[in-house]
Write a structure and sequence with these properties.
The protein has 554 residues and is an alpha/beta fold. Helices cover 38% and strands 23% of the residues.
């Protein structure tokens, strides 16, 4: 295979990696951290990435008293002879130099002076797969981006991506939402998994905000897959959904009888709950049953508080603590208008219908509209996920009992933003999200975490994340968190420090054979066409026209 040689190996070890001396004619500034290279050994090709670069000299005196570089001839004589550049590599995989050889983990290293060359398109395809191999190998590769300074697509193995929890990390403004939308579209297009997306800022379902000059928005998942009907929009604020020219399939209205004490405890920071909240909510649930919130609020709404005083004495509770809990819960009544506090009133219970959609293979995006606050987001996400978790446990138990392939649950990926709010060390042990991250892989449920504060996520949960897609991070604690347990964390840290703030990510973990830095694929008209949008364009325009006709004022 004809590759462009960049240098030769001069030292190294299996544990610490290899050092390459750059050839004289290769400019150091053309070499970038995270670049994909191949070390050509005698028996093996070693697929590697650049982790570090440094300048070196044969004689340190030269550096102390450098020559006069006003003449280019002197610079050329010195460069590459008396001074040279060292590039540090980390071999990740190796393959024997024979036809149909299998790629395997690195178990040895090349000898001195082995040539180091730029990877070719064939190298990238052989390591990361191609979408054209989906049919021949019955695997689901999805083009996610291209390596640095290359145009050959890098693919994720979506089945491996979905079977374990994964994460998209990066500070604000690094394009986490666009990357997540790419991943969700790939899962839907390849029918790898069904998705439940808690869309706090209405960026995934109907349309999203575009960061490209001259474009105000990009298509969401519903219009992208309109022809297949693979995506439904459930909205807490249907008027907001319709105002964006999209169809709202269901309005989300939840009764307070769906609220459990653990849902309230998740809101501890948002509501400023007293220390007694955990004990008191459990007592109230035991006393009043599933309508405990309604009964408690009715009890405390009495201005005389006589019944409340009697209840406090009977249960050996402090009236002041009950009043403090009541004042906090009143925020739910004022800020969460989608909650029905009247248990006898007919209400639209969407949870069972949502679960039925998921089990039929229809992805659901829950838009929050004007309820885009953390209080509503935490409450709704935890309530719905708890019911989904139980439904998938029951479905899996049924499948294990019947052994009927038709009863096998379809893999579910639950996407949450601001993941550290659900999975911090305090909340992770109490929420369904913590249980899913730790143990629900066997029930065909995984998480896709989207977060700018990975250091806020519980360490045990972080250790369960299979695939990490990491954009630029600036906080030292966040960098340490995402690299915890990663081999060669020092080299990965150098790569993270070199990432651009837009469209560059480091991918590592379960869904890729080796870590790699890529420029993410554009989310544009070409991508729409690849997802099959042209087939559904007429149908989507018809839906938009009907929505505008029904709601002309919006």
């Amino acid at each position: 295979m004809n590759r462009t040689v960049l240098g030769n190996i001069i030292r190294g070890s299996l544990l610490e990696g290899l050092d390459m001396k750059l050839l004289e004619h290769v400019p150091l500034e053309s070499i970038k951290a995270g670049k994909f290279l191949v070390v050509e050994g005698e028996q093996y090709d070693f697929f590697s990435i650049i982790t570090d670069m440094r300048l070196a000299a044969k004689n340190e005196d030269l550096l102390s008293s450098p020559p006069n570089f006003h003449h280019d001839l002197i610079r050329h004589i010195v460069s590459g002879t008396l001074t040279y550049s060292i590039v540090s590599l980390r071999p990740m995989l190796m393959r024997q130099k024979r036809k149909d050889a299998v790629i395997e983990p690195v178990k040895t290293i090349p000898s001195h002076f082995a040539a180091v060359a730029e990877a070719t398109d064939e190298d990238i395809a052989s390591v990361f797969g191609t979408e054209s191999r989906n049919e021949t190998e019955k695997r689901k590769f999805f083009y996610i981006g291209t390596p640095l300074d290359m145009s050959q697509p890098v693919c994720l193995d979506l089945e491996r991506f979905a079977e374990r929890s994964s994460a998209v990390f990066g500070r604000t403004g690094t394009g986490k939402t666009f990357i997540t939308r790419l991943l969700l579209a790939g899962l839907i297009k390849t029918d790898t998994a069904v998705n439940l997306v808690f869309d706090m800022h209405s960026e995934y379902g109907t349309r999203g905000t575009s960061e490209a000059p001259g474009h105000s928005s990009v298509k969401g998942l519903q219009p992208l897959f309109a022809s297949s009907g693979k995506v439904k929009i459930y909205s807490l604020d249907p008027a907001s959904t319709r105002s964006r020219g999209a169809h709202c399939d269901r309005e989300v209205r939840l009764g307070t009888d769906t609220i459990e004490p653990e849902d309230i405890l998740l809101l501890q920071d948002e509501l400023g709950l007293p220390l007694t909240a955990a004990e008191y909510t459990s007592i109230l649930k035991g006393e009043f049953g599933e309508n405990w919130v309604h009964h408690f609020m009715t009890l405390m709404d009495d201005p005389e508080k006589e019944k409340a005083q009697d209840f406090a004495r009977e249960k050996n509770l402090m009236l002041n603590s009950m009043q403090a809990l009541w004042r906090r819960l009143r925020r739910l009544r004022s800020e969460c208008k989608f909650l029905d506090f009247t248990p006898n009133q007919d209400k639209l219970n969407v949870i069972n219908e949502l679960i039925n959609d998921l089990q039929r293979g229809v992805s659901v995006v829950i838009e929050f509209g004007r309820y885009d606050n953390m209080l509503s987001y935490l409450l709704v996400a935890n309530i719905i996920t708890r019911h989904v978790e139980q439904a998938y446990k029951d479905a899996t138990d049924n499948y294990l009992r019947t052994q009927n392939p038709q009863d096998k649950p379809k893999q579910l990926v639950i996407t949450i933003e601001e993941a550290h709010k659900f999975l911090n060390p305090h909340a992770a042990s109490q929420t369904s999200f913590g249980k899913i991250a730790r143990e629900l892989r066997k029930y065909y449920v995984s998480l896709l975490l989207v977060d700018q504060r990975p250091s806020g996520i519980d360490d045990e949960v972080l250790s369960q994340i299979g695939t990490k897609i990491i954009a630029a991070l600036s906080d030292e604690k966040d960098i340490n968190a995402v690299l915890s347990g990663v081999s060669n964390a020092g080299g990965m840290r150098n790569i993270l420090a070199s990432l651009d703030t837009r469209q560059q990510v480091l991918i590592l973990g379960h869904a890729v054979p080796m870590p790699i830095v890529i420029r993410t694929r554009n989310y544009d008209a070409d991508f729409y066409a690849a997802m099959g949008f042209a087939e559904g364009r007429a149908r989507q325009e018809k839906v938009e026209r009907s929505v505008k006709a029904m709601f002309p004022e919006e």
